[in-house]
Amino acid sequence: MDSCSSLSEYGALVLSTSDPLAKSKLSHLAYSKWRHGELSIGVSTPPNQPARPSKPQLVPPKEIPVPKNSGLPLNAYMLHNLAHVELNAIDLAWDTVVRFSPYADVLGKGFFADFAHVADDESRHFSWCSQRLAELGFSYGDMPAHNLLWRECEKSSGNVVARLAAIPLVQEARGLDAGPRLVKKLIGFGDHRTSDIVGRIAEEEVAHVAVGVFWFISVCNKMGRVPCTTFKDLLREYDVELKGPFNYLARDEAGIPREWYDTSSLDNPKKTEQLSEVYERLACIISMEQQNSSLNGGPR
């Protein structure tokens, strides 16, 4: 562990670590060292697949059991699914850091700082989910999970713009849509402790999507491409599907222009913002997130 001299080396090590809690702790250590100026970006090669524990068993999405057949109560079932998403999110963020480390001169230091920060947040989110599962008498791995998120990551392994479109702007944005529904179900189930944790995670995911939008626009600008058109073209090229219902308020806060994903916004200029205004707001969100050191603590 101490032999790692760069952020990308640490990222590759996180990706090669199979134990979920060890992966989470190593992810936090890597970002802490980076934040304190102890690491360069470096250049590394990610593994073809992130290391995974023997459990949960990975199955096609259609084979994931419904709650009543899972052997878990509804709150633990939903929490297990979220833990799986957060574990994948750790690897997704580090894969972005490591895979595109050869292009650090083009992308800039801020790109890698932001995605390392996202990875640190996701590691903390997984720890919260794991701890709460233990409080409920369960653990991560107690039911099957799918590998859909990583397959989406693999599609974009050779194209940084496609990676930004497919992961933060689609996959993580779906978390913004699902978060409030999940919180409402947990409250209805009577588990306010878990609903508070999920609510806190959902709030922090807004900044992660904002990071994706910010860098997507930035890279498009460097390439001389129109962000909205590029986003839609990439979704068609990589066969990435947009699914509603959409949480417009959270997506607006994260800075995704509605015309990028909602065709009903195309003919209504009042529903859209100037791209420069979106870009400035995203920079503000990201800056505030980076300065909020209190996020290293757990939800109250």
Principal-axis shape equals globular
Rg: 19 Å
Number of strands: 0
As for the number of domains, it is: 1
Terminal CA distance: 32 Å
Oligomeric state of shown chains: single chain
Largest beta sheet, briefly? none
Can you tell me the residue ranges where pLDDT is under 50 for at least 5 consecutive residues?
267-272
Helical content (DSSP H or I, runs of 4+): 55-70%
The overall pLDDT average reads 90
Order of helices and strands: HHHHHHHHHHH
Report the structural category.
mainly alpha
Please report which band the strand proportion falls in: under 5%, 5-15%, 15-25%, 25-35%, 35-45% or over 45%.
under 5%
Number of helical elements: 11
Structure description:
The chain contains 11 helices and no strands. It is an all-alpha fold. It has one domain (7-46, 61-296). α3 packs antiparallel against α5 (109-135). 45% of the residues are buried.
Q: How would you sum up this structure in a few lines?
A:
The protein is mainly α and 300 residues long. Helices cover 62% and strands 0% of the residues. InterPro entries: DUF455 (IPR007402), Ferritin-like_SF (IPR009078), UCP012318 (IPR011197).
List keywords for this structure.
globular, mainly alpha, 11 helices, single chain, 62% helix, 300 residues
Layout of helices and strands, plus pairs?
Layout: H1 7-15, H2 20-35, H3 74-99, H4 104-107, H5 109-135, H6 148-155, H7 160-189, H8 192-223, H9 227-237, H10 248-254, H11 275-291
Helix pairs in contact: 1-2, 1-3, 2-5, 3-5, 3-7, 5-8, 6-7, 7-8, 8-10, 8-11
